[in-house]
Amino acid sequence: MQNPPYPALRELMAMLGEAGRHLAEIGTCEGAAGNLSLCVRWPLELRETFPLVCDFALPLPVPELENATLLVSGSGVRLRDIKDDPLANLACVQVKEGGQSANIYTVKGCRFSRVTSEFNSHLAVHNDQVLATGTNFHAIVHVQPVHLTFLSHIPRYQDELYLNTHLLRWQPETI
Questions:
Q1: How far is Cα 90 from Cα 110, in angstroms, rounded to an integer?
Q2: Residue 35's beta-bridge partner residues?
Q3: Which residues have CB under 8 Å from 88's CB, separation 6+?
Q4: Residues 92, 70: contact at Cβ < 8 Å?
Q5: In a 3-state reduction of DSSP, which class is residue 147?
Q6: How far is CA 103 from CA 106, 107, 162, in A?
Q7: For the whole prediction, is pTM greater than 0.85?
């Protein structure tokens, strides 16, 4: 839960940029592998920063996220690039009244044609957490370790249960 004063849009984009850069530096993502999103449930002024607005079909109804804004990385963007050019690498999805549809806000020079391919999962997890906790601020980080075999050299990952638990948490499609 975030308390007032709430971070402004530029601050939130800077946070995502720092997270993306850090994740790249520690080797958790390679190329465009990985994505980030924030769910913010306080008013944000989007039009001044992201002037292009289009209707956006939500993959599922999310009435709990009515009027929430999701800052989402674009499909194919590199997390490390968010810090240097957040406007080209992020979009804002603002859920409309009733949670059945949304608007997507972008800029002319964005480097993607759609938001992350994991958007459905991000939306469902944000919805679940808002419903369960009532939070007004929720973040999702989804990355893949660059060198999975490296993990087998770390003692705690030599335990099969420990390794499998973490692998399935990081990459649920492994199942």
A1: 8
A2: 142
A3: 77, 81, 107, 109, 110, 111
A4: yes
A5: coil
A6: 10, 13, 41
A7: no
